[in-house]
Write a structure and sequence with these properties.
B: mainly alpha, two-stranded antiparallel sheet, globular
């Protein structure tokens, strides 16, 4: 049989393409997704079921505690004590809410920290949102203006404002004061220490290394104990350092050492050519660092910097050990109020503190991710 | 021919104070002077202040009678013991929390790290939620939660929760476990065989590695090690006729006597520390696994290695190189964070030291002891880490 004959003997030749069939129902949509992600085998099915059970039970027990079984109204711990199966004791929180925020800051003067908080938020938010203009003015106001205003308003003693001792400060106010001063002081100090550690001058390098390794090697509690017990011994006779200020110094030095190591990581990642390029342009050391090296190095270590900020924010709770009443300290002292003793008072207080801390820390970490993506100018493969 | 003067050679004339070398020396001398002046000032002030407050200097107080009780003393301790002994008890308690915490945190952290990378949506989300929640809450809050909101509101000893009725009791004074009573001498011999088994298995491993490198023949080191480490003590145990007795705690109307009591402070601290650190370890493990590029797995598979062998010989060693340095610093963090024990009254080094400090006023000495311990631990660990890093670093050609 010839080829031509073979060709003619074919009974049917398709001239046009068939329409594509839709994929099997088990691989698309909800069902497909579930088969891949939830039930891809007997082991995974089991894990999914166990995981769901754990997740739902944890979620449910929180909802149950905080909402369903919770006590909503009352004027004393009686209501929370009498009922055997109570959940959260919300009247305790509403009664002490002002204390949670301000500690024992005089009630007639609480407008002052409120104004500081409003100013802080009003200046911080536009600074954080990249598209808002006047960044330079904003930064000046935030870093130079606000501290002065905040100091005058919070401490008082000027312009007819009655002075308020720092021993009366408390609650979220102290938490934020410690955290913000710690953050603002530790970043520049950390940068200086990191530069010192990479310096070519042996004396400066050694001093930086000793400083950094010392603070990184000891727990913050011992630092705070040192600040509250030993710092007064170091001072000349007659010089009294405020208790809150002592804790602030301790926290700032402690976190500066951690910050220094983060920044050093960024400095090490900058190729030598950048330094050489800057030197070839005739830049001085500080200009080279400020204009060429630091902008790149800091950009690289934003996640690390924010992680240290978060760690610092969480560590502010430790000041309660040297009896400074931060948010957690206030909850510790108010939940011991005999009027409010109930099995769930502690749990309720910690739930509130947990939500507030989570709000700040989670916010910081999300913001750092956002800014990281924004600054990621083409280094990613 | 005269030697040309420096200025004649065309070299730029640099004023001495513009010479970077000279400047460096000046800066360093100035810094050193400032630091020394500060140090002298501090020492001088301290001496004056101590003199004024009539506080004796030196470590002589360590021999005086302590006179306070400690709620947990793994080594013999009584009120009549000295301050030095009290601090030693604190040290042992710190070590106890740190070791147990590291153990639990490592296991949990690795599980969570792998879970976050799981293809299973529920497991991955659950692990992520855990890590995010725990990492964004202060550790002290978590310790307080476990201690004051969970363990201290448990029923009184009379109404103890009994997970295993008659054997295990859980109440607001802690967890009471049955006591293991070994026949005389059995405990020691078990320990000795355990050590022997461990040492022998190390030698077997070395021998097996050498043999494989020279001949290619493999040896089941895993099974043999298991047999040596677990099997040997088991054999000794069987030979003794299983001479182990479990003594249940006795429950009376108001209290529970006998058994091993784990105090709630210890439980709260270990729970909080290990759950907190596990979240950080999970992130480290995840990063470590992600750092091994997929090409490595593909290359290993194309060489014909089994998936399990690929994991053991190719992925894990490379991931470990990334994981171990930050992991060690997490272990150090856990040890340092165990000092938060002071907030719930667990008698660790800082708590005992604080009590001593309050009784004697010897702030400098007590703080020096703290610093010495924590700083010493950190420095030894970081020296070890540097050694390890050098050993494990990729040899670049």
């Amino acid at each position: 049989m010839t080829d031509a004959a073979k060709a003619t003997s074919i009974a049917f030749v398709r001239r046009e393409l068939l329409a594509a069939k839709s994929p099997p129902a088990s691989t698309v949509g909800m069902v497909g997704w579930m088969r891949v992600n939830l039930f891809s085998g007997p082991l995974h099915s089991l894990l999914t079921v166990i995981g769901l059970a754990i997740g739902i039970s944890v979620f449910w027990s929180i909802v149950d505690f905080a909402i369903i079984r919770a006590v909503w109204t009352g004027t004393s711990g009686e209501v929370c004590r009498n009922n055997a199966a109570v959940g959260a004791c919300w009247p305790y929180v509403t009664t002490y809410w002002q204390s949670f925020m301000f500690g024992s800051y005089p009630e007639t003067e609480r407008w002052r920290p409120t104004i500081v908080a409003v100013l802080f938020a009003a200046l911080l938010l536009p600074l954080l949102i990249p598209s808002v203009p006047y960044k330079k003015l904003n930064a000046w106001l935030f870093f130079a203006g606000l501290p002065v205003v905040a100091f005058v308003l919070l401490c008082g003693g000027y312009f007819g404002l009655s002075p308020v001792e720092t021993t009366r400060w408390g609650g979220l106010l102290v938490t934020l004061v410690v955290a913000v001063t710690g953050i603002v002081a530790s970043l520049p100090l950390g940068i200086l220490l990191a530069l010192g550690r990479r310096s070519k001058m042996p004396v400066i390098r050694m001093l930086s290394i000793v400083f950094i390794e010392f603070w990184r090697g000891v727990p913050l509690i011992t630092v705070l104990f040192m600040a509250s017990n030993m710092l007064p011994l170091f001072m000349p006779t007659g010089v009294e350092v405020d208790k809150l200020l002592r804790a602030l110094i301790g926290v700032a030095l402690f976190s500066a050492a951690y910050m220094a190591e983060v920044v050093r990581g960024g400095l090490q990642a900058i190729p030598k050519g950048q330094y050489e390029g800057a030197m070839a342009l005739g830049l001085s050391y500080w200009r080279m660092m400020g204009l060429i090296i630091m902008p790149q190095a800091l950009k690289l270590v934003i996640p690390g910097i924010v992680n240290s900020f978060i760690a610092l924010f969480k560590d502010t709770t430790l000041v309660l050990i040297v009896s400074i009443f931060d948010l957690l300290g206030i909850i510790q002292s108010t939940r011991a109020d005999p009027n409010w003793t109930a099995p769930t008072t502690a749990g309720t207080g910690y739930l509130v503190a947990g939500l507030i801390f989570f709000f700040f820390c989670f916010g910081m970490s999300r913001y750092s991710m956002f800014i990281e993506r924004r600054l990621n100018t083409g280094h990613k493969r | 021919m005269s030697v040309p003067k420096r200025s004649d050679t065309g070299a730029a004339r640099v004023l001495w104070y513009n010479d970077p070398g000279v400047r460096g020396v000046i800066y360093q001398v100035l810094t050193l002077l400032v630091v020394l002046a500060l140090a002298w000032e501090i020492i001088h002030n301290t001496a004056v202040n101590l003199d004024k407050r009539n506080i004796a200097q030196g470590f002589g107080f360590l021999d005086s009678k302590a006179g306070f009780d400690l709620s947990q003393a793994p080594i013999p301790y009584s009120q009549d013991a000295s301050y030095g002994q009290a601090l030693l008890v604190g040290l042992v308690n710190t070590a106890l929390v740190a070791i147990l915490g590291v153990f639990i945190a490592t296991i949990l952290g690795f599980l969570l790290g792998v879970a976050r990378l799981s293809n299973n949506w529920v497991i991955a989300r659950l692990a992520t939620a855990y890590v995010e929640a725990v990492r964004n809450l202060p550790l002290l809050l978590q310790i307080f939660f476990w201690y004051f909101a969970v363990l201290r509101v448990l029923p009184a000893p009379r109404d103890s929760i009994q997970p295993i009725t008659g054997w295990v009791f859980l109440n607001n004074r802690g967890l009471v476990l049955p006591e293991f009573v070994f026949a005389p001498g059995l405990g020691q011999s078990l320990l000795v065989t355990l050590v022997i088994g461990f040492v022998v298995s190390v030698f077997v491993r070395r021998w097996a590695k050498r043999r494989q490198e020279s001949t290619g023949a493999q040896f089941a080191t895993g099974w043999s090690s298991l047999a040596l480490i677990v099997g040997l003590p088991l054999v000794v145990f069987a030979a003794s006729g299983f001479a182990l007795e479990l003594v249940a705690p006795q429950k009376s109307t108001f209290n529970i006597s006998g058994g091993i009591r784990v105090i709630p402070e210890f439980m709260a601290l270990v729970l909080a520390l290990s759950l907190y650190t596990a979240a950080f370890i999970a992130e480290i493990v995840r990063a470590g696994i992600l750092a091994v590029s997929h090409g490595q797995t593909e290359a290993a598979r194309s060489l014909g290695l089994k998936p399990s062998t690929t994991l053991r010989l190719v992925v894990v060693p490379q991931a470990m190189r990334v994981i171990i340095p930050p992991l060690t610093s997490q272990y150090l963090n856990l040890t340092k964070n165990s000092s938060l024990a002071v907030a719930i009254g667990y008698p660790d080094l800082v708590y005992v030291g604080g009590t001593v400090l309050n009784q004697t006023g010897q702030a400098i000495e007590v703080i020096a002891i703290w610093m010495l311990f924590y700083l010493g631990t950190s420095l030894i660990t970081s020296t070890f880490m540097n050694w390890y890093n050098r050993r494990m670093a990729i040899v670049e050609r």
